[in-house]
Specification:
Pfam families: CoA_binding (PF02629), Ligase_CoA (PF00549). By secondary structure, the protein is of the alpha/beta class. The chain has 2 domains: 110 residues, Rossmann fold, CATH 3.40.50.720; 152 residues, Rossmann fold, CATH 3.40.50. Helices cover 34% and strands 22% of the residues. The protein is built from 9 helices and 14 strands. Helix 2 runs parallel beside helix 3, helix 5 packs across helix 9 and helix 7 runs parallel beside helix 8.
């Protein structure tokens, strides 16, 4: 069992023939991901990396039954790519693109809310189910199969947490990089919920950062639903000055509850095992799994 992507997922790359799309598609194919083709308008009918190129996502869905898309489209066109994927019937839309204008994301987010799809990102590292599918830009060798799920706003800390968990001999079920923009498709709570409902996931690592309410919402949901599985939490940005964007466009402290300190307090009150340093994540997971 896994969430979002697995060995049966039929994955396409939007922005397939561009430099980013090409590089990461090669890595995904090498990993063993079931990549069935890609989309570059105007290049339909060609082959790239031994896979078919389509002019539209609809063609890819009709011809190769694509159900997952990963987007490497420049920021100005990325919201359109998201909406096109949703229109065509893609079930999981993973958007790597950074710097999509907020106004565009408001439009795309509103457009897809009634569609039968799930958006991950934008500005995220993607999703990996070790040994089955790597749909993103993460280094595949860091991850191995196991029983710990990861939800993270930070790409780098996703890899760090995975490395520590694997070194504890526990491994990963699915790691979900949700992205650090102000408007994202799947929230921390929704990603945690997916892993809570996955029978193979025995523990969840939740990595957040300053800014917004996502981690507090997730923590309260975990408590309200009876703390069914242990959750280990870390919040990045404790030393960030108020009012300044730190790394991610969404990482800006607005109110008192946006600070790392406030988030850690809320998480602890909700029964989450909070660590003060990312270096402690692996040990804490091993401790709570027992």
């Amino acid at each position: 069992m896994s969430v979002l992507v697995n060995k049966d997922s039929k994955i396409i790359v939007q922005g397939f023939t561009g430099s980013e799309g090409t590089f990461h598609a090669e890595q995904m194919i090498e990993y063993g991901t079931n990549l069935v083709g890609g989309v570059t308008p105007g290049k339909g009918g060609q082959e790239h990396l031994g896979k078919p190129v389509f002019n539209t996502v609809k063609e890819a869905v009709d011809q190769v039954d694509a159900d997952v898309s990963i987007i490497f489209v420049p920021p100005a066109f990325a919201a359109d790519a998201i909406m096109e994927a949703a229109d065509a019937g893609i079930k999981v839309i993973i958007t790597i693109t950074e710097g999509i204008p907020v106004a565009d994301m408001i439009k795309a987010s509103d457009y897809i809310k009634d569609k039968d799809c799930r958006l991950i990102g934008p500005n995220c590292p993607g999703v990996i189910t070790p040994g089955e599918a790597k749909v993103g830009i993460m280094p595949g060798f860091v991850f191995s199969k196991g029983k710990v799920g990861i939800v993270s706003k930070s790409g780098t800390l996703t890899y760090e947490a995975a490395d520590q968990v694997v070194k504890q001999g526990l491994g990963i079920t699915t790691a979900i990089g949700i992205g650090g923009d102000p408007i994202i498709g799947t929230t921390t709570k929704e990603a945690v919920e997916l892993l809570m409902n996955d029978p193979e996931t025995e523990c969840i690592v939740m990595i957040g950062e300053i800014g917004g309410q996502l981690e507090a919402d997730a923590a309260r949901w975990v408590k309200e639903n009876g703390n069914k599985k242990p959750v280990v939490g870390f919040i990045a940005g404790e030393t960030a000055p108020k009012g300044r964007t730190m790394g991610h466009a969404g990482a800006i402290v607005g109110g008192d509850d946006d600070t790392a300190e406030a988030k850690k307090r809320i998480m602890s009150e909700c029964g989450i095992h909070v660590v003060d340093s990312p270096a402690e994540i692996g040990k804490k997971v091993a401790e709570v799994i027992g």
